[in-house]
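[User] Could I get a sequence and structure tokens?

[Assistant]
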Amino acid sequence: MAITVLFEDNHVLAVVKPPGILSQEDDTGDADMLTLLKQDLKERHNKPGNVFLGLVHRLDRMVGGVMVFAKTSKAASRLSESVRSRHFGKTYVCVVQGVPSKPHARLTHYIRKDNKQNQVTVFNKPTNDAKEAILDYEVAAVSGRYSLIAVKLHTGRPHQIRAQMAHIGCPLVGDLKYGAKPTAGMSDIALWSTSVSAPHPVTKEWISFRSIPSGSDVWTWWSAEQLEAASKMLSDA
């Protein structure tokens, strides 16, 4: 499988994850990014034995776009700390059904995950076992009953964008789990990781990586200029 490499040095690997690929191995035994990239590094660099690669953050299986991995344990530790301390910028674009009531806003909710169902519930107020979920969104374009939305995450909760946008009445196209109406030809959900930014784990220099949505039919509903503009909104890149 051809995976686009955006950046690589001795400490960091940034790539574009194709939709439909797991971030890491699970019980299904299906292809996952961590395993594929370890194999790729081993072959490209002729490395003997096991190859270290640290998972810093995840994308849902049906989501494509920028992912960053750590090539050393030190880099993994420092990038993970950046995630915990919220010095790790993540922006996305998505296509939703409907048009949000406000063209831009900050959403603050509380999310509780049901691990058995692999689904989350969103609450408006603090609730037992629910964690705070914060994101900013901005409407980039509207076409009929659909909106192209830029999103900046401030927390990294499971299914956060999917659940919060659905909670305000705008589920992501293709996301049947969170209330979207079926869309012909959609096998993935209309969500793409457009940028990841963080301090380099060794040099401390601010590094940013970007990717424009591609692949799914839903992205062809918008011009290249609209997708480019949306991908830059709210971004630290």
About this structure: Helices lie at 33-44, 73-84, 160-167, 224-232.
